[in-house]
Structure formats: structure tokens, C-alpha cells
Amino acid sequence: MSLCSGNRLYLNEVIPVCDSFLVLSAKYPQIKSLMGPDPRLKWIVCSMVAVQFLAFYLVKDLSWTWLFFWTYVFGSGINHSMTLAIHEISHNTAFGNSRPLWNRWFAIFANLPIGLPYSASFKRYHLDHHRYLGGDGIDVDIPTDFEGWFFCTRLRKLFWIIFQPLFYAVRPLCINPKPISQLELLNGAVQLTFNVLLYLCWGAKPVVYMMMGSMLGMGLHPISGHFIAEHYMFLKGHETYSYYGPLNLLTFNVGYHNEHHDFPSVPGRRLPMLRTNCSLILEAPSGERHENNAVNLSIRRSAADESVPRSVTDVELLITEGVKAIAAEYYRDLPSYNSWIRVLYDFIMDDQLSPYSRIKRKLTGDIKQE
User: Fold this and answer.
1) DSSP string, 62-125
2) What pTM did the predictor assign?
3) What's the mean pLDDT in 187-201?
4) Gap between the Cα atoms of 211 and 167, Å rounded
């Protein structure tokens, strides 16, 4: 049933969800070769944390004017990117499913430059989002009724986007509050200790840079277009959209959102293999080259060369033209975006769009939450 009020549209109809994972996994069993940890992820995250630590030191002597400038131009982007690194880690793509605690602790480490302890809570709520997309009272990615009712004009929608991180922080407490876990307590204690030490060592400016960077980066910022692009219903009946623009390079390919929801165990770096034209080329230490069309990721190995990698996790992926990708025909015709900035503009300016423009489901049966 659709409930309309003025220019606002609120969908709470139950829409059957096609289990793309089962369908595509059966048709393309080689997709399983893309799953598993990304060995590069932990080094990329460590480098990003180190860059922000250096920035904390450099901004301590800046004037407030330059501090605000660099906070938006640089700090906001890298802090938003750090939140998406935590999103990656929440799917155990740093150390694999066999070491879940390593992933949780590493996420707490990645959380340090963001300033607010959220990595442990994000993990719990994000898995609910995947299991029960749009679930009423479960999926806290769905705006509250108040948000849909109030933020319906262009000016109010602009305000809503600017303060998006605040709504994301408060919404779980309103929709689906959960008991605090030990990991959340650890996350909070570690973050508070870090924030205090940062202030004691280098003063207030690095702390302001850190906190404001997170607020600005997740507010009115080009990267924040992904918040709207992922599930807001620009086309009626289409619930999830992918983005294939250049900002994927800074966001761990979070734009490949249809692909991510279908295969959350595939790290962001490998999601493009589900739709782009690509081939896999392996070179053994002996110099022999092994080429494999991405349609079949079982690697041809010579009998004498046991050192050729067995898994896609051990090789470089060379993107080339003219070779059919895994499941490409499934994704190529789905609606998608090429600009997150345009998504933000259209969301604000289109009077038919509001926080109500989401599909919401009434869940029944046994519901298992994190």
C-alpha cells in the first residue's frame, strides 16, 4: 500500500526479493573465487590512518580559516573514505571469516581518525540492513516517519543532507535500540582515550579537524551522494542502484551496490569483475603466462609449476576489453548513476523525492538480529 501526503511518497508494501545470490551463484559458480579477504585492504587502511595522523600534526599550527579549508577539502573526504573502509571490514574482508575478532579490532583501529566510536555498532546494524533490507523496525537505514514528514521541501531536504551524520547516529536509538555490547564499550573507551591524548599532545585544532571532517564528509559532500544513490527510489519499483563513476576509486567501490548486496562477501576491489569486461592473466615465476577469461576462474596450471597461484586472491586482475565478465548481462541493464553530485542535486530539487522515497517491508516470521 502506498501512503501519499502532498509531495511525499512512502512505500510500505511488501515486495518479493529475488535471491540473486542463489540465482547467480548457481549460474556462475566461479563467483565464489572472488570471495574472501582482500590482502591489500589492511595496508590501505593503515596508510590512510597514518596520513590522518600526519594531518593532525600539521593542522595544529594552522589559522582557523585554513583549518576549516583543509578540513573540508581534504579531511572530510578521507574520513568518509575511512567509514567505507569500516564498511568493508564489517564484512570480514580484512582478515577473513576465520578471524572475526581480528576484523572487529582492526575496525576499531580504523575508527580512530573519525573521532566518534561507531565501528562496533555499525557492524551490528549493517548486517541487519543486508538481511532485512527495508525491514520496518529493523533496518535503521530507513528514515523515521518524522524525517519523511518534515524534510519534504527543497530547503529542508538540503538541511537534512547537511546533517545526515546526526540522523544516522540518532536513528538506531529511535528505530531499533540494542543492548550495548562489550565490543561497543571497547570501541568507546579506545576512541575516548585517543581523542584525549590527541588533545593533550597537539591541542584543540586536530580534534576540531577530526570531528568536523567526519561531519562535513558525511554531510553535503560529493561522496555523500552514495547515501541517497544506494536505495532511494528515483524510479518506482527499483530499490537498489549502482554508481559507476570515478569516486569509486576513493570509496572501496561502494558504488557497486547492486553487486555488493548480491555478494557481500566479495571485497569491493573485486566487485567490478562482476560486470566489467576483464580477463585474468597469471605469470608464473618461470615466465609462463596463464590467461583465463573471467567466465571461468579455475586457473590453468602446468604440471611442473606448483607455484602458480590457485586463487584470484593471490593474483593481479588486469582489466582488458572484449572478454565477457561474470554475470555482466545481469547488471548491465539495471538503472545506475555516473554522478553522486547529480544524485544529491536531483534529490533536493525533485519535489517528488523525500526521505519517504524508500521501500519499507513488514517482516514476518523468525527474525534474527545481530
Assistant:
1) S-HHHHHHHIIIIIHHHHHHHHHHHHHHHTTTTT-TT-HHHHHHHHHHHHGGG-S--HHHHHHH
2) 0.82
3) 98
4) 16
Q: What per-residue confidence (pLDDT) applies to 19?
A: 60
- 61-70 — which CB contacts under 8 Å span 24+ positions? 61/205, 62/205, 64/205, 67/205, 67/208, 67/209, 68/212, 70/209
Contact 207, 67 (CB under 8 A): no
The stretch 72-77 carries a mean pLDDT of 97
Q: What are phi and psi of 97, to 5 degrees?
A: -70, -20
To the nearest 10 degrees (0 to 180), the angle between helices 182-202 and 100-111 is 30
191, amino acid identity: Q
Q: Tell which residue, 171, 132, 175, 130, has the closest CA to residue 14.
A: 132
- What single letter denotes the amino acid at residue 131? R
d(CA 190, CA 194): 6
Provide the pLDDT for residue 236.
83
**Angstrom distances, CA of residue 112 to CA of 56, 100, 127, 139, 168:** 12, 19, 22, 26, 19
Quick one: average pLDDT of 276-286? Answer: 41
- On whether the CB atoms of residues 48 and 88 are closer than 8 A, the answer is no
